[in-house]
Amino acid sequence: xxxxxxxxxxxxxxxxxxxxxxxxxxxxxxxxxxxxxxxxxxxxxxxxxxxxxxxxxxxxxxxxxxxxxxxxxxxxxxxxxxxxxxxxxxxxxxxxxxxxxxxxxxxxxxxxxxxxxxxxxxxxxxxxxxxxxxxxxxxxxxxxxxxxxxxxxxxxxxxxxxxxxxxxxxxxxxxxxxxxxxxxxxxxxxxxxxxxxxxxxxxxxxxxxxxxxxxxxxxxxxxxxxxxxxxxxxxx
Length: 236
Known about the structure:
Strand content: 5-15%
Shape: globular
Strand order of the largest sheet: 2-1-3-4
Radius of gyration: 18 Å
Helix content: 40-55%
Distance between the termini: 24 Å
Number of helices: 10
């Protein structure tokens, strides 16, 4: 069985597990602490980052882009009969999502509205691009769930949690992205692709008192100094 090494609130890992769940591929998952990485994990991961996928043959794969390509090669595709050009475009649109995972992590940790707005400007550009690309839905390429959906799922899932718990909707200006977000939530994949205690761990970290979102996104709050970096939130 495939084995995944994970950190519980890592979006890069969720992209991988969402794809496995969508393809109904059985897997084992082991969680580690990024602030106290075990030696056995460092021996498996040249970068010291999650995710790591250990194949049934015992080979350790790293980097989420490489891992999802491997999963695609050993399983039936979510979207059949794509041309080489379509597959290349899907990879490009998937990259537009994954390169913003850490941007979203940083934005959610903002200590006040001024910092949040500054960081959100970059994140918003990714949602603007998706808004201009989306058609009638319900998924990125239309009626069929695909790899691009799996890549964007962590961003959209986290935006939904932020909206539910802080009242701030990162996607308010993007109606097509909002509809896409709801379609992905309706599949159940966001919930299936994370640990049972994901919501609590996520809110404890990103929606804590130290963040603007955690304080209820109070728009009347005076700016403060940037918060010190807190270990254990995101991954690479």
